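Every protein is a chain of amino acids, and every chain bends into a shape of its own. The protein below has been through that process, and both of its lines are reproduced in full.
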Amino acid sequence: MTTLFEKIIAREIPADIVYEDDQVIAFNDIEPQAPVHVLVVPKKPIATLNDLTDEDAALLGRLPITAAQIAKQLGIAEEGYRVLMNCGDNAGQTVYHIHMHLLGGRPLLLPLA
């Protein structure tokens, strides 16, 4: 089954893209939980963190590097930001294509909802 993110990568549905290279795409979340809420998504479809293999190590490493670059670009790097990945239903994963949430632009307090 094709995921929402695969459709965005293939340009079958629109997204507000803030970054893209040959391995990663990043776009604004359509239901933001903070003033800045960007999803950083590998172009390779991997359902969950549990499905990663050793061959995915370099690709997975691109996600926080990309998130940090975007945080600088959007002006939230100095004041701080959060990165978050969910794995499975109980963690709140709703799209089964791994992705990293970049959140910032306001204080992000714990506990999470």
Notes: The mean pLDDT is 95.
